Amino acid sequence: MINFKNKIALVTGASGSIGRACAKLLHAHGAHVILSGTNLNKLDDLANELGTRCEIKACDLSDHAAAEKLVEDLDDLDILVCNAGITEDSLSIKMSVDSFKKVLDVNLVASFVLNKAAVKKMMRKRYGRIINISSVVGFIGNPGQANYCASKAGLVGMSKAMAAEVATRGVTINCIAPGFIESNMTDKLNDQQKEYMKGKIPAGRFGEPQDVANAVAFLASEQSSYINGHTIHVNGGMLML
Hints:
The protein has a single domain, classed as 3-Layer(aba) Sandwich (Rossmann fold), CATH 3.40.50.720. The protein is 44% helix and 14% strand. It is built from 8 helices and 7 strands. Strands 3-2-1-4-5-6-7 form a 7-stranded parallel sheet, sandwiched between helices. The longest helix is centred in the middle third of the chain and has 29 residues. The radius of gyration is 17 Å and the shape is globular.
């Protein structure tokens, strides 16, 4: 049985659909949850819904010094869920270098900063769970998202390297690669685009944020202690490896 009593969990991007679901499930299993993001209204709403055992730590992850301080200022940390991400879509031939760097700075570089700071805390206590949220498009690509795909593929390689470095210290680092999940990002698709994408998914539907949260809770638990440097694909069969 999953039990996070007396565990401290930090969830970035907690104001989004997936981050919200992750925070709620970790909290439901007993964790003290730190909600991070940039939309204070949504964070306040979530904190009010959770009630006890939660706090808000607003942070703009494009500021890497602030991202590092976010973790360093915590008294303790057992679970880190790097879920925050941005998109800035354009065909590669039209995409500026600044746009490419902007997405990598938030999705990949900030995640490295958070992972590194978390590892320092976790290694001292010889325990920790880090879950980085990648994406199916980091494996299959997606037209118009060269920057986003690169950032999400980079998370997988980074996680493997860091997982190998800290495995003997009781710290695991894994990824989850969601497919098309009902979220802020899929809300931007029109009905024709949604039906087209659903036709590529054997399950015939988009996933729910809860589907991702369930995988997060498993990787954050004691039951996953021998799983490290791995990616769990949550995509309804869209990509089968």
